[in-house]
Amino acid sequence: MSIDTGVPPLHFFLLGHAKEHIRAVIEHYSIRDVVIFTSVELEEENLPFIQSLRDEGVVISEVINLEPFGQDALERMMARILDAYHIHSRSERTEFVVALTGGTNLMVVAMALVALMKGLPAHYVLNNGRNEVVEIDLFERLAACVDAKEVEAQIRAGGEER
Prior knowledge:
CATH architecture: 3-Layer(aba) Sandwich
CATH topology: Rossmann fold
Oligomer: single chain
């Protein structure tokens, strides 16, 4: 994975019921700046954890509530993740890293597809008692094979066609 340590990357995290994976990755990479994607249903449950990260000096740039259930959930979540990517890209941020641990399966799929579209490095935390971080560079390598603009147009049009 090619993380430029000169510019602190913005990490996109998925937050469900489990929290250990986020702490493991924060410690592994000394992360200081994150966007958290969680579900509407877990917003209240996750607020104390999010505040504890802030108390530890992690900048929570944004908390985005996703709706991971329903017919168009995948398209809607991808659109929300892409919106966050575009907003934070305009703030001169050039380095993004995405987490593929946490949240629902569809939240992970949405995050992985955005990583593929944008060629972003990713990581996954193994649930093996040691919280080992596995770096995934496949999306960076495959991004050139994807017409990201066309995929994004299809995602945004998907909900309108149903």
